[in-house]
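I am writing to request your help with a piece of structural work I have in hand. What I wish to show you is a protein chain and, alongside it, a tokenised description of its three-dimensional fold. Could you please explain, in whatever detail you think fit, how the structure tokens follow from the sequence? You will find the record immediately after this paragraph.
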Amino acid sequence: MAILPIGAAEYASVRHFVEVLLSLPWSKEQLNDSLDMKSLETAIFKDYYGTDKTKRRIIERISSNILTGGSEKGPIICFMGSAGTGKATLARSIARGLKREFLRLSLGSIVDITELKGMPRSMIGATPGVFIRELQRLKTSNPVIYVEDLEYLGDGDNSLALALLEVMDHRLNHRFIDNFIGIPFDFSKALFICGVRYPDGIPEVIDNRIEAIEIPGYIEKEKVSIARKHLIPPLLKKYTLARTDVSVTADGLVRLIRDYTMESGLLEFSRLLDRIFRHVASERRSKKRKKWKLDSPLLESVFGAPMYIPEKPMKEPQIGVATGLAWTGVGGELMLIECLKMRGDGNIVYTGSLGEVMRESIQAAHSYIRSMADMLGIDHDDFKNFDIHVHFPSAAIPKDGPSAGIAVSLVIASVMAERPIRNDIAMTGEVSLQGNVLPVGGIKEKVAAAHRANIPYVCMPRENEKDLKDLPKEITRSTKFIFVGSVDELFEQALLDFTPSSYTLEKMFAVELEKARRKRSAKVAKKRKPARKAARKTTKKKK
């Protein structure tokens, strides 16, 4: 710099380049790099309200990476879960437990590779990539870097995914070259954690370098506990309110969750709580009231009438109506499945904004019921003389997946055999063409939905029994589980006695009349035979 005149055209760019080089944390030991397992466990268990299984898996994965000095060439940690489930909070807790700096980057706004790898120094206004810039600001070479919104990376542009892999992958990042500095920089000491909402959001080129750790959503009880421990205390402090000013009950929080939110995470729930406490603080300053209670009147005064009306089970057993359990992006829900038969040509119709997987599941269930017609007491001709219509209410919501297979099999069997279905049982499970019940996912959320609707019995595949250990004890105590391995076992549990319709009675009456007519005809024919024989003998004698 001393021999370059200040008036030179390249003076500013060279000076900027040198300043960047000098400001980068080239040393690998910027912070205390020793692993304190107790500190890490304390931070994760304190801030993250999830299953112990998920917490232990995260701790084991991080400890194995740190204990090897970052030299382990294992996959990159990726938290997978819906918005508001605590992925970023969990990553921040890991950084605090490791006593490291925390960096949070969103990939949603990155559309060009130069934003990741920098611009060449020869370009006007050249700058380093986002990773070099952030390390320049943090002044440490081993932060915890949380890279979120992986599903929005370049909208399928593989060059961006490859550039990201170059900085995150332990096989490559010890010599990461930014286009601006042009010198290899060691990123191997940094701990990279990715965040994605759904499995299909992971770019294909880095899918094989990702170890996905599912961050499940929360049920009502967990949301209430999180609100009491983590959401309400900061709001009281923010709006200078005392705990005695607002009476927060579990029933009030449950009412807020059920009537005004529809999510598996906590984003909307936390925003609504903020609105409630803001409303209370405003009224407190105007001295309209001194104390408030989080109940239905307060919720309706702030938000209006309830925004969501949950599905409810039938009040009594009915033919062709079963209560299924579904997992959605907002958690578990009841899904009433309706079916009816009508005069036709043996076609099957399905409605309700269904995906391809669910349509195939309906076809498989229909074929299996036809094959089991004799066992269910169904006339084979009924499948030729009647059309079947299977409908999933809430048709505006897209539905897909195989977990409604056993419920569809049950409603088809119910309408064809004219046997009612129990209304106190909810069910989930996939059905094969042989009638086997296959395991499904989302058991925790589905069982919680049945418990929320006060349904005492839940039927599920036998192989899903292992998933019950993740459920709260109060749910398992009040719910009776029925495990089935085949659809035939479900029929024994859920189908009630035969209740014939008027058409069936007419059909039965016609069948009995036909039997009586044939019987009478046989008797008449039997009596006529001796008379004919006697007439023949008389004719022979006359001859």
In short: The mean pLDDT is 84. Residues 502-542 form the longest helix (41 residues).
